[in-house]
Amino acid sequence: NAGVTQTPKFQVLKTGQSMTLQCAQDMNHEYMSWYRQDPGMGLRLIHYSVGAGITDQGEVPNGYNVSRSTTEDFPLRLLSAAPSQTSVYFCASSLAAYQETQYFGPGTRLLVL
Amino acid sequence: GNSVTQMEGPVTLSEEAFLTINCTYTATGYPSLFWYVQYPGEGLQLLLKATKADDKGSNKGFEATYRKETTSFHLEKGSVQVSDSAVYFCALARMKAGNMLTFGGGTRLMVKP
Q: What is the pLDDT of residue B15?
């Protein structure tokens, strides 16, 4: 049981490039989400999904796209990278109801030049 | 809207000192409250949680009590260890957005031998 996995661990992009951050979980969790972590600001929700085929926007969705074609995978796409998207990105998953614990991946550190 | 405010760090303590990290929240309804911990270079891990007023969450010597009257969820530990050095995040879960979390800004704790 690997839990929540994320790839890559670290990525450098040039402004305007696109890329996909991968996230997968093997716990059969319905809820998955993406957060970005910036110094002094905690984690902010980008997008989330309550099940396969269902996604919704979080607090800071602009510049990001998601899809959920399977229960296991929840990729995050940067359409045209900007320096403001330099951050650490965490994927998380949870079983169901809002009292449940969320499990976080190890993170992807992204640098946009 | 929902928000979480926690004391800014860094907090520097000597080993075996008493720890308090303050956390207050603003939320509609009855959120669940969490403390997550992030060790250097790692993702977030759930430390403890409380799902209703007057509940006390506890784990690894840490405790926090859900105080609805003061909208607080302060984290305490009676005797900290060097291994407790990490960043601590207070968070609440919103029913409206499934199981998605609103985080405070994080408090860095440094424990010196």
A: 97
